[in-house]
Amino acid sequence: MQQNKGAVAVVGAGSWGTALAMVLADNEYEVRLWSHNEDQVAEINQFHTNKKYLPEIILPELIVGYASLSDALAEVNTVILAVPTKAIREVMGKIRNVQYSPLTIAHVSKGIEPDSLMRITEMIKEEMPSELLKAVVVLSGPSHAEEVSLRHPTTVTVSSEDMGAAEEIQDLFINHNFRVYTNPDVIGVEIGGALKNIIALAAGITDGLGYGDNAKAALITRGLAEIARLGTKMGANPLTFSGLTGIGDLIVTCTSVHSRNWRAGNLLGKGNTLEEVLENMGMVVEGVRTTKAAYQLALKYDVNMPITMALYDVLFKGKNAKDAVDVLMARGRTHEMEDLVNIHDEKNIFE
User: Fold this and answer.
1) Residue 238's closest CA among 112, 162, 349?
2) What DSSP state is assigned to residue 106?
3) Residue 68: which domain range?
């Protein structure tokens, strides 16, 4: 067994949590990888594999599976929270019930909670007593778990209201395969990471319809404008959306077969119902839930988001995907630069 630097808990043993556990193990940390599935934990510990999520990958021996959350968190100061958005509150409740010392929680999920319209950092703060929460950090960026597990070059961003905590997470993960930048714009980082899943669903639909690269390039570009419009209205720095958690994450999620959201959209474009798509995927498709939240945010902040609105109609109102795309193409004429000027004026970055 190689020498390690101490213990870090990764809560959530899906593809992304497992891939990040591998990065931590490569950096010589003892990784306690928690799962609610005891069979999965047994597989991790006996065979050093997690075949459901990362087939063909052998896990480092420094990764140990835990079925007991209290054991996984014992004498740990840092938790990597890698569960779907819809499970955040439930899992935070479990952590709250077994943890007795302050934690730095770095979440790696990308979504917004419908109805409450909270970002994940806000959900964590609401669920965790302040005396048990040292800091909340978000890690986001263009990163497929499949490629990270193969140690392909990857760059991500960490952000927090406590930049000292962000730098600690940066130091925890950074190595010659996995480069980590810092950014103080928590709102922008979380909004970019969440809303790109919506545009990836839409990009998958255009591919499923056979509309080609021209349509997808337009969709990605106009999708970024939508994300930036909403994000700046919510208080984000518009420059964040030109970085890794904006255009970077948008490109990788809209153009890769590794993307669950793209794959789900592709199936929708080929005529499958949403129920059939979700059953076929077998894993969480964050963009579906986030579309509902983004639709609600657009109404709340009075922001023009035509792609989001069209996708909402497809997902939740049964509108035909082709008809939704045709409606987008038939919208009244406008000036492209108006969006850019309005976004920049929102934050007065030219002053």
Assistant:
1) 349
2) E
3) 7-184
pLDDT tens digits along 120-143: 999 999 999 999 999 999 999 999
pLDDT digits (tens, 9 = 90+) for 4-17: 689 999 999 999 99
Residues 69 and 66: their CA atoms lie apart, in Å, by 7
Answer whether residue 3 shows pLDDT above 80: no
Report which residue type is found at 85. T
Task: Check whether residue 264 and residue 164 sit in a common domain.
Answer: no
Last residue of a domain, one of 134, 152, 184: 184
Is residue 248 in a domain? Answer: yes
Mean of all residue pLDDT scores within the chain: 92
What is the DSSP secondary-structure string of 185-235?
A: -HHHHHHHHHHHHHHHHHHHHHHHTT-HHHHHHHHHHHHHHHHHHHHHHTT
Task: State the catalytic residue, choosing from 110, 196, 233, 292.
Answer: 196
Q: Has 317 been annotated as catalytic?
A: no
62: helix, coil or strand?
Answer: coil
pLDDT digits (tens, 9 = 90+) for 185-235: 999 999 999 999 999 999 999 999 999 899 899 999 999 999 999 999 999
Structural domain count of the chain: 2
Tokens of 256: 């890769």
**Considering the domain boundaries, does residue 2 fall inside one?**
no
Q: Which residue has the tokens 């023009």?
A: 304
pLDDT tens digits, 137-166: 999 999 999 999 999 999 999 999 999 999
Sheet with 7-11: strands ordered across: 63-66, 30-34, 7-11, 78-81, 103-107, 133-140, 154-160, 178-182
Q: Nearest to residue 305, comparing CAs of 266, 331, 323? A: 331
Q: Are 156 and 174 in contact (CB under 8 A)?
A: no
